[in-house]
Amino acid sequence: MAKYFDVHPDNPQPRTISQIAASIRDDALIAYPTDSCYALGCRLGSREGIDRIRSIRKLDDRHHFTLVCRDFAQLGRFARIDNDVFRAVKASTPGSYTFILPATKEVPRMLQHPKKKTVGVRIPEHVVTQALLAELGEPLLSSTLLLPDEDEPMTQGWEIKDRLDHVVDAVVDSGECGTEPTTVIDFSDGEAEIVRRGAGDVSRFE
Within a 10 A sphere around the Cβ of 106, how many other Cβ atoms? Predict the structure, then answer.
């Protein structure tokens, strides 16, 4: 049975955030809100967490997982960014964008695209997620909480708790968040390729 954490959307309770971070360090798989929609998240090096996310979402090994980072400095540890790409990414963060970029050696091989050696990275603009990332001290390995054969992610914490009670370890609820996943931009070849149109405005990349 998943633990249920009720977190204030504007002033997250430090004790609760600390409890959530501790559970992640202990290899918990959580469902948590972001500035686009709910996501599944686990510890950066958790192979079990990756396998569980793949199982829940029925993903193959070509799926790009996302490292949800606290800030640009942290993002720069895990992705290689040249000057032109730097400006474009910097101007769009924090926000509802995921960028696919060449991975650095800091990224575990199991998280990289098997052929391209790339990784998805993002910096969310969400108070609760930012508080959790600050407490955790490292990125959250994440994937949009979009179940197989469904068109839209779930938006209510209680609904996620009800449906995924036996496949996740914790649900973080800070009120309703969006229904659109992030906009995904692939910069792995140096040019912007729009992979998915989502919550982030794509006009600057067209």
Answer: 13
For residues 3 and 118, is the Cβ–Cβ distance under 8 A? Answer: no
Dihedral angle sign, alpha carbons of residues 141, 143, 144, 145: negative
Q: What is the pTM of this model?
A: 0.95
CB 92 within 8 A of CB 204: yes
All domains of the chain in start order, with CATH:
3-196 (3.90.870.10)
Is residue 73 within 8 Å of residue 90, measured between CB atoms? no
In sequence order, what DSSP letters do the residues of 126-195 get, joined into one string?
Answer: -HHHHHHHHHH-SPEEEEE---TT-SS----HHHHHHHHTTT-SEEEESS---SS--EEEE-TTSS-EEE
Q: What is the rounded CA–CA span in Å between residue 65 and residue 52? A: 13
* Residue range 5-53, pLDDT digits in tens: 999 999 999 999 999 999 999 999 999 999 999 999 999 989 999 999 9
Q: Report the b/e string of 50-72 with b at 16+ CB within 10 A.
A: bebbeebeeeeeeebbbbbbbee
CA distance 206 to 197: 11
Cα(123)–Cα(96) distance, integer angstroms:
8
d(CA 44, CA 107): 9
9 secondary structure, DSSP code: S
Tokens of residue 71, six digits: 């800030």
